[in-house]
Specification:
SDR_fam; 49% helix; oxidoreductase activity; eight-stranded mixed beta sheet; Rossmann fold; globular; single chain; binds nicotinamide-adenine-dinucleotide; alpha/beta
Length: 326
């Protein structure tokens, strides 16, 4: 690999990700976490939360259930999922919660999950695409996609598309169905390498994670445009939770892991605080009929310049359809 190639594909993504992280931490040093106000009762509504068994996903599931929603936790670790169900059931008021197996690193599993969900005959009002992995060593999903791109983005892309008919049927004027995509500030440093989305020519864990989170924002905006044109009562928003102390950071290298511990204690948000903007997007009356937003700390915020590139959005959509066989 040439020097320029190394700088461009390894060093720059690494530096961009850490710079973005420092900016978020500075923000969190001087700003309180967004606090949820009273949210409307969600009785009769159904939500799917991917990765809902731990971290922010657990907090989202717990909060939605406490509002009366029927929550389906979709996850790839059955024991963790069943434990989460038990804990939430013990404290949820009127809500129902259950676990359904979903491995986002397998498109086959995504299709099986959707089949199982649809066979329950339940409506679908909220889909929170929350699950994610970060900084994994080079690896592949079952169908051979780079793991960050394949799991964080492509798995959710297929899941959402297969559930879109259910979301469209369940959304009504005044009570829209809502899609919430968990992105990240790292998308600001992300670059879409359209001719090498799987990072085969030069792998960078930092670049791949940031790219997957930018892909989710591009997807959110393009999907919202399609839903608006079609006149459907379904909204699509992206959420940036800030920096939150969860297991997501378990793949940081040794020295970074050591440095992270005290910083996290002081400056990271708790999972409940980090989950608040996603809960807001999924349920708040102010977000009724509001789509196509990037939400940070409970407010609409500008995402990266490239995320608004409609040609790039359309190109990624087309390519993603081809990759997942839609
Ligand atoms: N923690 C942060 O600082 C932070 C910042 C920005 C964005 N995010 C995003 O928030 C989301 C939630 O992360 P978190 O911080 O709660 O981390 P976490 O590690 O606690 O949760 C990740 C969830 O994804 C699930 N998951 C992983 N692989 C899966 C697979 N193959 N199939 C199905 N589910 C799978 C895990 O089981 C877990 O429930 C992620 O998308 C992450 O990228 C987190």
């Amino acid at each position: 690999m040439g020097l320029w190639s190394y700088v461009n594909r390894h060093l720059l993504p690494f530096l961009r990700m850490y710079l973005v992280g420092m900016k978020v931490l500075l923000y969190q040093l001087f700003h309180r976490s967004f606090a949820l106000s009273v949210l409307p009762n969600q009785n009769g509504r159904v939500a799917i939360v991917t990765g809902g068994a731990r971290g922010m996903g657990y907090e989202i599931s717990r909060h939605l259930a406490s509002l009366g929603m029927h929550v389906v936790i979709a996850g790839n670790v059955e024991e963790e999922g069943l434990d989460a169900v038990k804990k939430i059931q013990e404290e949820a008021g009127e809500g129902r919660v259950e676990f359904l197996y979903l491995n986002l690193a397998s498109l086959k599993s995504v299709r099986q999950f959707v089949q199982r969900f649809k066979s329950t005959g339940l409506p679908l009002h909220v889909l929170v695409n929350n699950a994610g992995v970060m900084l994994l060593p080079q690896g592949q999903t079952e169908e051979g996609f780079e793991v960050h791109f394949g799991l964080n983005y492509l798995g959710h892309f297929l899941l959402t598309n297969l559930l879109l008919d259910a979301l469209k049927r369940s959304g009504k004027h005044g009570t829209c169905s809502r899609i919430v995509n968990m992105s990240s500030a790292t998308h600001y440093g992300g670059r879409m390498i359209m001719d090498d989305l799987n990072g085969r020519s030069c792998y960078s864990a930092h670049g791949s994670y940031s790219q997957s989170k930018l892909a989710l924002v591009l997807f959110t905006y393009h999907l919202q445009d399609m839903l608006t044109v079609g006149g459907y009562h379904v909204t699509s928003n992206a959420v940036d939770p800030g920096m939150v102390d969860t297991n997501l950071y378990e793949n940081l290298c040794g020295p970074a892991q050591l440095a992270k511990a005290p910083v996290a204690k002081l400056l990271f948000r708790t999972p409940a605080q980090g989950a608040s903007t996603a809960i807001y997007a999924a349920t708040a009356s102010e977000m009724e009929e509001v789509g196509g937003c990037y939400l940070f700390n409970g407010c609409k915020t500008a995402s990266s310049e490239s995320s608004y590139d409609t040609e790039l959005q359309a190109e990624l959509w087309k390519k993603s359809c081809a990759l997942v066989g839609l």
